[in-house]
């Protein structure tokens, strides 16, 4: 969309759900406001009067989070079409601007009438694991709709159909009765057929969608679907699933749903912006020394690297090269040429061959800058890299270290791939993997204090160094832009990890040394299944009492399963407090009588008020004796016997307030691996529905790290912290209470940690029922407004643990368009 001139972009057009004579279209303006522009809709030769509604604020920003720039105003237009519409040939929408008249949209009346639907629906995903197939989507009930699955020869396949609340669809169709808007999930055993028919039956009508169920076809289908998910349900509403599939067969994107090469070209600064940057003068213009160790570097790579530094739009830099190739260095002449080509280039010539740490340190010793930047001898900086760093240092004077996003570039420099979009400073993620990597710039005073690179950790010398820097300061800033291109080598750690096992072993030692320096001596560091990602286990010096609080209403089979899984845990110093709330079945109370007071481990207390998840858990805490609180849903089942120790080890740290676990659905897919505020609306579970054998974007599923929130289906909280924030907020009866709790813990300066090595099944709120009745919808909307008002800032600015380049309508770290 051209932002130079204010122009209208059509996002959606359709007929009114309840009045087929009314036509609706929605869109946005490139400058976010309509200003003096005017829209006209014509049918044939007749101009039709338009009614306009404007929607503004955080809700719109979330809906259009996939746009390349912020959108906070949506315009909706409606009109009544002529009664004898079929006599006309075309419907057109024109826009009148200062530049004149332009056509926004045109459709033949014949095609328009075909789009007039009795029922709106969308198929969003088809998945399969462990012998089952799962189809998800939504529909707006056109009259007692029933869903069924048909196989070959139209035989009915036995399936489980679950319905749920869909706030996003309700927002998209404001005229719909909220109780008729339903999300659905159809689950059935995998059949021999390659395809099945998903049928919506209502009255005498049937809509059939042919969907793939063979694994290879499912993968292809989901690629097709994902290529348009960046605009969510909007595309489905506008075109329907069949056209989505037909059109996307011609245009399959990569796994993220966005072609990265095109994305990069769009987001790197153009020549005009670079020229403007080169003319800018900052109040503070520090010298940045870029230190690079060389070792028999291929001449073309070194020239390209130096050229990328000479091309910087910020000019107060020096390049400090140290050649560790030895006396007969093959790049000696090239270095002499480079040194004479620019006074800002320094070369340290060494007679002996040097290892990586010592070689880098020779370059650091020659540096005279206020800040030190690190780069490898064959990589590339983007031309705005140093400019962006200095811009941050001027805007945030207290910042002492900076890191940026990065990607990989092919050997010939033509292809960019594997972008690494990072979170803001994440202490536990840094303790698990060197996600800082490149570009990293640090104040020279920090280097002087912590010391240069340590050869004891060669192979992971940079990891050891950034860990020491993080001990000195947490004033570390993340620039969410690609500023560095890491050249990919076939034999490098990135491409062939096994070729540098010594580097990964050094990484584990670097983390342990870091822990020893900061006094975390009761730690063990091990390698995970992904080389370069480490796991920390805390051996407990003491075993404090843990109070396990489980709200329960009937569903005794689930509760029994939960309690038996606790019994299997190796940690034994716990008490279980079951908070009974409004059960009705006789067997429930008989079971309570049988277990109450059992071995001084279990007690049942009775909540006699209306259901309020926050109040019920707070009531449980009133009866808790432990120093640590473990909140568990009654439909969870602990999988690993060390689960409590895994949670407690982190929670006992003074800087941590709460710890969450990795939760799976019954079919083994991910239910919870951390919560991102703003994802999917208010907040969402990252990597939701990912198969359990996948590790996620840069192994984030299996990596210990900090998040803004974790789910209270399994969360351990320091009791002292819980009491300081006065527990769960009872104004949030059902929705977002756990997110709110975590955010208030974060306000205290305490961390919320996700530990994937505490693992549970979560059978997903069976005892509470669905949320699609009118009173529940009203309550949900009320609680949504309450949460949005309290946490407006983070909803507006974005979750610091989620990169702003990721889409907020995807759960797999897919790129925004």
Task: Tell me about this structure.
Helix content is 28%, strand content 30%. The chain is of the alpha+beta class. It folds into four domains: 8-114, Immunoglobulin-like; 121-248, Sandwich (Immunoglobulin-like); 271-489, Spore Coat Polysaccharide Biosynthesis Protein SpsA, Chain A (Alpha-Beta Complex), CATH 3.90.550; 546-797, Spore Coat Polysaccharide Biosynthesis Protein SpsA, Chain A. The strands form eight sheets. Strands 28, 29, 30, 31, 32, 33, 34, 37, 38 and 39 form a ten-stranded mixed β-sheet that branches. Strands 17, 18, 19, 20, 21, 22, 23, 24 and 25 form a nine-stranded mixed β-sheet that branches. The protein starts with 7 loop residues before the first strand and ends in a 20-residue tail after the last helix. The relative contact order is 0.08. Residues 227-256, 490-497 and 765-770 have low confidence and may be disordered.
Mean pLDDT over the full residue set:
87
Biggest sheet layout: 10 strands, mixed
Secondary structure tally: strands: 39
The percent of residues in helical segments reads 25-40%
Number of self-contained structural domains: 4
What general form does the structure show? Answer: globular
pLDDT under 50 segments (min length 5)? Answer: 227-256, 490-497, 765-770
CATH superfamily of the largest domain: Spore Coat Polysaccharide Biosynthesis Protein SpsA, Chain A
SS summary, helix count: 24
Known CATH architecture of the largest domain: Alpha-Beta Complex
The CATH top-level class label of the largest domain:
Alpha Beta
How far apart, in Å, are the first and last alpha carbons?
12 Å
The rounded Rg comes to 30 Å
- What is the CATH fold-level name of the largest domain? Spore Coat Polysaccharide Biosynthesis Protein SpsA, Chain A
What percentage of the residues does DSSP assign to strands (E)? 25-35%
